[in-house]
Write a sequence for this structure.
């Protein structure tokens, strides 16, 4: 990990913080009812997006699932585009047609989110097939939750990618639950997704998904081979979702009991933003006052964008039939 | 009669049949959550426990086959999908096995009485991949019974019939209906499959409607009455098999037909009813029929677009008035306040 | 003009476009076999090799998503399914991603120009799970273009248009058509998407037909002529978007409409065209329309049942004669000799 | 294997021979064009069906795929029902509605064949679920080719069966090809289906599918545990199809070159019928003359049934709408 410079560490932290704060501000705003689109916050899981996207080139492409804001922002998607989209405005990244679960920003290689489990894996595999056919040095990345592994199509994609040795990275955010269903009702005891992937001849690594260094390191250690034809890779990133499955609430606000409070708290201790910031301080790269001032800047920036997004016009109903 | 919610009516139908028949069980994503599919499975879950009401992984494809395999040895599975759209993944098993089972084995393979509940329709900016109404698609395939209860009594009664039927039945439930109230018998009274229901009598025009559009049609009929037009509203209830007789009798009486469906027009239920009129009710018709369906595009999320996308009572009123050669005037007051709340 | 087979015409369409556009590739089960999907992919395979024509595992679900992902970065995949029925497994990706892509990203996600070839229809006792015609199902969903070439010239011309179109196109090919002959331009002449074709002019009745039923309709028209009835035959060619104008103009001329489709009636193409007539052509109609479709049951295997299941030219002739208030007489001589050979 | 009595060996051989001869006679008959139904012969693969079904109880149920005659006959399905079905007659097991790929005989627990890849696995898993719910001591068996493993639904079924420890046996007839596609274009190099199954927590065994003893032994060694709640089992039976994928022809008759002639010949040397018969002789249980006379009896019996099946009436077109 010695190849991470202090500057990189700082920008990773800022990125984590920016994404965290964007979602936190949106989660508050969501309570007002002005964002009429089912929204899945990735709060608590930011290190996966930042660690992975930090290892990608601009020519690399990303697909993701319903919990997509973190990946969109980390890949460089326009924050205004995201927020205006949640507000259903013409200025949204999908011009208000898509909502939270259908985001896109092609200018930065964020090729789309789709909320149907399994889609991101197949899409990324397809783009990787195209890259390979054209001898392009690009990689396609699929972000998804461990719930997608319940779907057969995920295994079809892995099998295909491995058969053709495609340059695709499957990045699983294993947050232990699909909606409110724990792994135990969905997989046999003792299941290891990495073991499964290995049996499908997809190289795999399990990493601490709340440690941006670890995720970034994992990407760095596998991406070159993947890019140059060694075949697909699975990164299983262990992480945890802080809020409810869809919507802004904390478990206690909605009287949710499907997971123990202590479990949530122990994962919140492993907050990826705090850990990254803590390292900056402990390594002597930054001081708490730096962190505080970045935070203030970021807050201002996002609040600003939010206000601008509200000012974006509504789509004109006469455009209903555009782009079919 | 007492009034209960649509969600409670569905729950009662299931619970009462589960009491009668121990072979019924419920599975699907989140059926055993406290939220219990808009509260429809909570009581069953409490009463019958995890042996008969249990969660399933997101594996729509095999799960449908598993339900069919269970039905083939005597079970009556209820499969629930929180969004009908996910059931595209089940189409292979549903249409290739469930719909064909009885026929393709010449009756010698028995039947596979699977009941599939799918939630459809508008909600909280669901968007294109989370809101589709699949009745037209499913009804096209012989071998499936497809029902769309609009009112609590039908929700309970059709559920009971579905759970007693000797073959696969799909029940499509429109998301915004769960909280609606209506009179529902306390007893287990089945509503026959394959029978439409005249929910309002009238003499000038027939409005055939499905699911949520039956509410809009009633709403429209009230407005039309105030404008001097007597509308008969036929709630289709079952899409396949189609109750041709009830529809044709109504057209015979009124000579005018408007069809309002929750799916798209092209090869949709609205076209089917219009075609029926053109083929078997032609001589009754005094004017061209009118189809009212979703706008011919995927569902947008943004509110002003959603408003343009989904037809309402106002759409129906306008269609009827134009058909009768009259002006509809201002119908903006017909728009309901959309009080469906997210986050899902 | 030279005559070539339907299979060769499809092949030419693909090969010529593949010469023009290096982003086109073909994949799917068995596309690179010597048999080459009734010979339609053999030439492409020979000419462009395994880099552009390659086999795929039976993984219809993900494969469609893979094609879409390839299209999203500039490729134009042709996906071939040896039986449309298997594509139920692709419906999720096809209908949730391909059909919605352009719209749900507000145009900012570009388009995903995937061409999906599906083989449909009768053959060697295919039975219920191996013979279905999916046009009605697919056309219901906005965002997909659905075409059904019946004649070699359209097979080539629609293939060319599909491969130049900025969005997903499904091509449904009726199994028994591959060996039929017809005049086909040597040049790459596109046939426009969304345009029906009047393949025989007439004045007494309009027969709107799809795919293989267009042959039967021509056959019927010849017989009708000998009985003094002048039939106009409209080959629909594109199911979605529908060419309403051509159909309505023909009905305007003849006042009578028969629709003959290769899929089922309920929520099918035959209903769609009948509904169009009832809504927009009502004042032209002099008699009830008639829908001709598959019998309302799954496809049986046994020959006498198959014969009762599939409509033919004789069915059309009888329908027309009844519509015109005349007797059809004996039409048994219209039955073709079924010379399709197995084993598949 | 010492628990196989001489009588059992004899009846296993007769069963293999009966199935072989039935299909061979049908394959000849098929050339006449009187069986208008796409037909997949299992000639060469009989030992799997006989070995597995020999280990089942009458209360156990079987599902299978398109190549289904061997399983139907081995489970005890009526030969007349099969042949009349191929001829499209009312007396067929599916009353002429189903054809070769939609067979059923519930009286013997053969619950159906379906020609769509993946179906048999899900169906058997579902019946096993029902057995478990009802505490029935039955097992459900899914026969399928290795091509079904290309389908995601197969992995969904395995995952589900393992999660719930269902009494289901997945019996894969790995005959190296799906239609004319070799394993190498469908799976990554080095793939082991057993390894994959293990990663899905399904116990697995790879066996010589041309050795009825080996298959039977494999079933015997796993079925009791499976029946009593230890969870699902995969038997990967290595075998080979002698004829074309669909239809009666030999490779040379159709000029098929997708597999080497030498490969076919080496598998024909491992003929399961011949091996079983050879053992009877070498073990001194039977003599060649016994084998010959059984063969003659079986031939007569099948020819007889074939003629009777031709006499079965055609379905009446007026019954088209029955049993929808
Ligand atoms: C095919 C399909 N089935 C069901 C759903 C409903 N659904 C939405 S999110 C979700 C849980 C997903 O869990 P996971 O993949 O682990 O992602 P997470 O939400 O935990 O980030 C489910 C089941 C879906 N979106 N798609
Ligand atoms: C879902 C699906 N896709 C494609 C097919 C077409 N198909 C029929 S048989 C076959 C090959 C099957 O190979 P395998 O499962 O190994 O069985 P085998 O024929 O070798 O016995 C294929 C691809 C099908 N039946 N079902
Ligand atoms: Mg999860
Ligand atoms: Mg095989």
């Amino acid at each position: 990990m010695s190849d991470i410079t202090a500057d990189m560490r700082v920008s990773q932290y800022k990125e984590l913080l920016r994404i965290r704060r964007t979602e936190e501000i949106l989660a508050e705003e969501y309570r007002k009812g002005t964002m009429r689109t089912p929204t899945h916050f990735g709060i608590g899981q930011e290190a996966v997006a930042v660690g992975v996207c930090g290892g990608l080139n601009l020519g690399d492409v990303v697909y993701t699932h319903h919990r997509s804001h973190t990946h969109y922002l980390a890949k460089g998607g326009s924050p205004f585009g995201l927020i205006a989209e949640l507000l259903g405005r013409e200025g949204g990244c999908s011009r208000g047609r898509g909502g939270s679960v259908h985001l896109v920003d092609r200018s930065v290689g964020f090729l789309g989110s789709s909320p149907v489990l399994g889609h991101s894996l197949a899409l990324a595999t397809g783009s990787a097939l195209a890259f390979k056919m054209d001898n392009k040095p690009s990689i396609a990345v699929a972000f998804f939750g461990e719930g997608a592994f319940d779907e057969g199509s995920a295994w079809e994609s892995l099998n295909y990618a491995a058969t053709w040795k495609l340059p695709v990275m499957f990045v699983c955010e294993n947050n232990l639950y699909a909606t409110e269903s724990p792994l135990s009702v969905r997989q046999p005891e003792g299941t290891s997704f990495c073991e499964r992937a290995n049996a499908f001849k997809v190289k795999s690594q399990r990493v601490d998904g709340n440690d941006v260094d670890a995720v970034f390191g994992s990407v760095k250690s596998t991406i070159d081979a993947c890019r140059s034809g060694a075949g697909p890779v699975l990164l299983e990133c262990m992480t945890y979702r802080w809020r409810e499955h869809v919507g802004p609430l904390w478990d206690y606000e909605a009287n949710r009991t499907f997971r123990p409070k202590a479990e949530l708290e122990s994962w919140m201790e492993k907050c990826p933003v705090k850990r990254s910031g803590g390292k900056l301080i402990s390594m002597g790269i930054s001081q708490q006052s730096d962190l505080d001032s970045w935070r203030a800047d970021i807050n201002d920036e996002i609040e600003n964008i939010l206000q601008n997004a509200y000012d974006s016009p509504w789509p004109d109903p006469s455009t209903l039939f555009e782009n079919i | 009669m007492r009034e209960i919610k649509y969600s409670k009516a569905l729950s009662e139908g299931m619970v009462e049949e589960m009491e009668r028949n121990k072979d019924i069980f419920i599975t699907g994503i989140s059926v055993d959550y406290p939220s219990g599919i808009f509260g429809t499975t909570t009581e069953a879950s409490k009463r019958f426990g995890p042996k008969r009401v249990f969660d399933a992984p997101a594996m729509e494809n095999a799960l449908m086959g598993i339900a069919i395999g269970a039905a083939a040895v005597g079970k009556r599975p209820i499969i629930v999908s929180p969004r009908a759209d996910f059931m595209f993944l089940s189409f292979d098993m549903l249409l290739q096995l469930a719909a064909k089972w009885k026929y393709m084995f010449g009756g010698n393979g028995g039947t596979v009485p699977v009941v599939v509940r799918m939630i459809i329709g508008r909600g909280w900016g669901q968007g294109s991949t989370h809101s589709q109404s699949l009745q037209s698609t499913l009804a096209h395939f012989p071998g499936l019974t497809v029902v769309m209860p609009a009112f609590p009594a039908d929700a309970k009664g059709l559920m009971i019939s579905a759970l007693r039927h000797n073959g696969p039945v799909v029940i499509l439930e429109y998301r915004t209906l769960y909280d609606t109230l209506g009179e529902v018998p306390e007893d287990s009274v089945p509503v026959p499959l394959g029978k439409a229901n005249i929910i309002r009598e009238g003499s000038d025009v027939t409005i055939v409607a499905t699911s949520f559009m039956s509410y809009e049609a009633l709403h429209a009929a009230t407005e039309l009455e105030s404008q001097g037009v007597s509308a008969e509203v036929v709630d289709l209830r079952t899409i396949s098999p189609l109750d041709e007789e009830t529809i044709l009798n109504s057209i015979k009486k009124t000579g005018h037909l408007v069809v309002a469906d929750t799916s798209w027009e092209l090869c949709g239920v609205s076209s089917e009813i219009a075609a029926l009129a053109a083929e078997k009710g032609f001589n009754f018709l005094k004017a061209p029929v009118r189809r009212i369906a979703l706008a011919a595009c995927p569902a947008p999320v943004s509110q002003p677009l959603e408003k343009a996308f989904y037809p309402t009572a106002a759409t129906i009123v306008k269609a009827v008035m134009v058909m009768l050669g009259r002006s509809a005037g201002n119908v903006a007051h017909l728009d309901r306040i959309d009080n469906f709340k997210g986050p899902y």
Summary: Chain D has one domain: 6-303. The beta strands of chain D are 61-64, 110-113, 140-145, 168-174, 177-178, 181-182, 203-208, 233-238. The longest strand of chain D covers residues 168-174. The domain at 6-303 of chain D is CATH 3.40.50.970 (Rossmann fold).
